[in-house]
Design brief:
By secondary structure, the chain is α/β, with parallel strands linked by helices. The strands form four sheets. Strands 3, 4, 5, 6, 7, 10, 11, 12, 13 and 14 form a ten-stranded mixed sheet that branches. It has a five-stranded parallel sheet with strand order 16-15-17-18-19, with helices on both faces. Strands 1-2 form a two-stranded antiparallel sheet.
Length: about 575
C-alpha cells in the first residue's frame, strides 16, 4: 500500500465514540509525524462529518415543526405565572387575540351608525341620541318602512318630509306607508311620501344650512323624544278585516313601545275611522292625530317612522317584538277601549259581562253538579245578506239549541257600533260564522271560547290562514265546518262535477280576483244539519271541560269572583 505524505495523513480517532467531538470549540491537535494511516481512517472522516450533519438536521426538523404547529393553537400567557397554555376554544378565534394575553382584555368593537340594520332603529334597539339618521327597510314583502332621526319637518304641499342635517350622500326615499306592498293594484292608490335629505350643519347666526338653504319654519314643534309614525288609512280601509290586519295591528306592532308618547300622522284620513277606532287609538297615543294632507302647518319632529311593521295576518309575533308583546296584549287593548265593565273570563254562564259571576258553592273539587245547573252557554251567529249566505239558518239555530247552546243571531251592518259587537262577543262562549270579514271579531272573544267557521268551497286556505291560525294563537278552540260540493250553490250553477266545484285550485291559480269573483262573490251555502251538529257537540264538550277545570282552579284557590279587572281611562 502506497503511503501518503505525512501532512495528508488523517489522524486516528482518540475515543471509541467520535460523535462527541462535535461540541469541541477548537480543532483536535495534529497527529504525530511518525503515525501511519490506519485502514479505517477514511471511514472515520466520513463518520465525523455525518455526526456534524445529524444535529443540524434535527434542529431543522424541530424548527419546521414548531412553525407549522403555532397557527393550530392560541397561546395565552397567564398573568400569575410564566406557564404557557394552549387554547383551542372558539372565543379566541373571534378576535384572533386571546382575551387575557399580557393582561389585556379584548373589547367588543363599537359598531357605527351606518353599519347597523335599519330595523334596529325602527324597533328602538339603536339610535338613541344619534342625529342625522336616514334609512329604509325594504326587506319585508308586506311593507316598506323608513326611519328618520334629526330635524324632520313636514311639507304637506308636496307630500314630503325634509330631514335637515341628514348624512352626506343620502338620496331621497319614496315610500307608500301601507302594508300590502305585494298588491300593486291597491298600492297604486296609496299616497306616496318623499323623504328629502338636506345634508349639512345648521348655522344659527344666519339661520341657514351650510349650503345656504333656509329651513322651513316650524308651525308646530313637537316635544323632543316624541316621534311621529306616518301611515295611510286608504287601500282596503272600510273592510273590518283589513282595518285590523293591515292597519290597527301593524300600528300596535310599530307604536306600542312608545307607551303613548308618539304622534300619529295619517294619510288619507277618514273622520269615521277615528270615530270607530278612537277608543283603541287613544290607548296608543297621548296626542291629537295629524291629518297629513289637510293640515297645512309644518310639523317638526326629532324622530319619525314612515310606514308600519307587520308580522302577518292578524298576528303579533312575540319573537319579533322588542318587549315580547303578543296578540293577547293587543286584545287587552281592545278590551280596555270597548269595555265599560271588567271582562268576565270564560265560564258556563252566558250572562252579560256587566253581571258579576255567581260564586261557586263549597263542593268537592271538580264536582260537576255545580256547573250542571248553570245557564246554557251563549253562542253568537253572524249572518250575511249578499253572498256566502247561510241558506238554512233556521235549521242551524234549532241545531244549536238542541246541542245545549243559547243562540243569538246578529246581523252586522257598517253602522253597528263596535262596543255593541264587543259586548256580545266578550260575554259569549262560542261564535258561528261563514267565512268573511265578520269573523275578524273573534278578537273580542275570551281565550278558551270556541270559534266555529263555516268554510265554503274553494276557501279552505284563506279560512285557515286569515282566521283559523290567528284564533288558535289567541287561545280559542277553533273548529271548521267544510262545505261539501253538493252543499254549495255553485253546484247548481256550474254542475256538481264541474271544475269550479271539484277542483277549485284550478280557478284559484288564475289569481286572487278570479277566485274572489267565483268563490266569495257568487256562492251561498246550505249546511248538512246532522254533520254540523257533530261539531256543535264537540264545542259543547270543550266548554264543559273548560268550565269544570275553571271550577277546580277556583275551588283550590279559595273561591272568589272569577273576574279580571280591565284598566279604564
Amino acid at each position: 500500500m502506497m503511503q501518503l505524505p505525512q501532512h495528508h495523513k488523517p489522524s486516528k480517532p482518540s475515543a471509541p465514540s467520535s460523535c462527541s467531538s462535535w461540541i469541541r470549540r477548537s480543532p483536535p491537535p495534529s497527529p504525530p509525524p511518525h503515525k501511519k494511516a490506519g485502514g479505517g481512517g477514511a471511514g472515520g472522516g466520513r463518520g465525523r462529518y455525518a455526526c456534524r450533519l445529524v444535529p443540524l438536521l434535527v434542529l431543522t426538523v424541530y424548527s419546521v415543526f414548531t412553525v407549522l404547529r403555532i397557527p393550530s393553537s392560541s397561546l395565552v400567557v397567564t398573568t400569575d405565572s410564566e406557564r404557557v397554555d394552549r387554547r383551542d376554544d372558539l372565543e379566541a378565534l373571534k378576535t384572533h387575540l386571546p382575551s387575557n394575553q399580557n393582561g389585556l382584555e379584548a373589547r367588543e368593537e363599537t359598531r357605527s351608525v351606518a353599519s347597523l340594520p335599519c330595523s334596529a332603529f325602527i324597533n328602538g334597539e339603536a339610535g338613541h341620541g344619534e342625529d342625522g339618521v336616514l334609512c329604509c327597510d325594504r326587506s319585508h314583502y308586506r311593507s316598506d318602512v323608513c326611519y328618520l332621526r334629526g330635524d324632520a319637518r313636514t311639507d304637506p304641499s308636496t307630500s314630503s318630509v325634509f330631514l335637515y342635517g341628514a348624512p352626506r350622500g343620502s338620496a331621497p326615499e319614496k315610500v307608500r306607508p301601507y302594508t300590502r306592498k305585494f298588491e300593486d293594484s291597491i298600492m297604486s292608490t296609496i299616497d306616496e311620501v318623499t323623504v328629502v335629505p338636506v345634508p349639512g350643519a345648521f348655522n344659527a347666526s344666519s339661520g341657514a344650512d351650510e349650503g345656504g338653504g333656509m329651513r322651513r319654519r316650524c308651525d308646530v314643534r313637537h316635544p323632543r323624544g316624541v316621534p311621529a309614525v306616518v301611515f295611510s288609512t286608504g287601500g282596503y280601509t272600510g273592510n273590518v278585516y283589513h282595518e285590523f290586519s293591515d292597519g290597527l295591528i301593524p300600528l300596535f306592532v310599530t307604536a306600542q313601545r312608545f307607551a303613548g308618547e308618539v304622534v300619529f300622522v295619517v294619510l288619507e284620513y277618514h273622520y269615521w275611522w277615528l270615530g270607530r277606532y278612537g277608543a283603541v287609538l287613544e290607548r296608543l297615543t297621548n296626542y291629537k292625530i295629524v291629518d297629513f294632507r289637510n293640515d297645512r302647518r309644518v310639523h317638526c319632529f326629532d324622530e319619525m317612522i314612515v310606514g308600519l311593521r307587520i308580522h302577518g295576518e292578524l298576528v303579533v309575533d312575540p319573537k319579533l317584538m322588542p318587549n315580547g308583546k303578543s296578540i293577547k296584549d293587543f286584545q287587552a287593548l281592545l278590551h280596555q277601549g270597548y269595555s265599560r265593565t271588567p271582562v268576565v273570563p270564560l265560564s258556563s254562564s252566558s250572562s252579560s259581562s256587566s253581571q258579576a259571576p255567581v260564586p261557586l258553592a263549597l263542593a268537592p273539587p271538580c264536582d260537576t253538579h255545580a256547573t250542571a245547573r248553570a245557564p246554557k252557554p251563549k253562542l253568537v251567529i253572524f249572518i250575511r245578506k249578499k253572498n256566502r249566505v247561510l241558506l238554512n239558518l233556521p235549521h242551524v239555530v234549532t241545531a244549536c239549541r238542541k246541542a245545549g247552546f243559547a243562540p243569538h243571531v246578529m246581523n252586522l251592518r257598517r253602522q253597528t257600533p263596535l262596543p255593541a259587537i264587543h259586548a256580545a262577543l266578550a260575554s259569549a262562549d262560542a261564535m258561528v260564522a261563514v267565512h268573511g270579514a265578520a269573523v275578524t271579531h273573534f278578537l273580542f272573544m275570551r281565550p278558551g271560547s270556541v270559534l266555529l267557521q263555516i268554510v265554503p268551497v274553494g276557501l279552505d286556505w284563506a279560512a285557515d290562514a286569515f282566521y283559523g291560525k290567528p284564533a288558535q294563537q289567541l287561545g280559542l278552540e277553533y273548529l271548521e265546518y267544510k262545505v261539501a260540493p253538493e252543499e254549495s250553490s255553485l253546484a247548481a250553477k256550474y254542475g256538481l262535477n264541474s271544475t269550479v266545484v271539484r277542483t277549485p285550485w284550478v280557478i284559484s291559480s288564475r289569481g286572487w280576483w278570479e277566485m274572489k269573483k267565483v268563490y266569495m262573490d257568487r256562492q251561498n251555502v246550505t249546511v248538512n244539519v246532522k254533520r254540523f251538529a257533530e261539531l256543535l257537540r264537540q264545542a259543547r264538550a270543550h266548554l264543559k271541560n273548560n268550565t269544570a277545570a275553571a271550577a277546580c282552579r277556583h275551588h283550590r284557590h279559595g273561591g272568589g269572583a272569577l273576574s279580571s279587572e280591565v284598566e279604564r281611562r
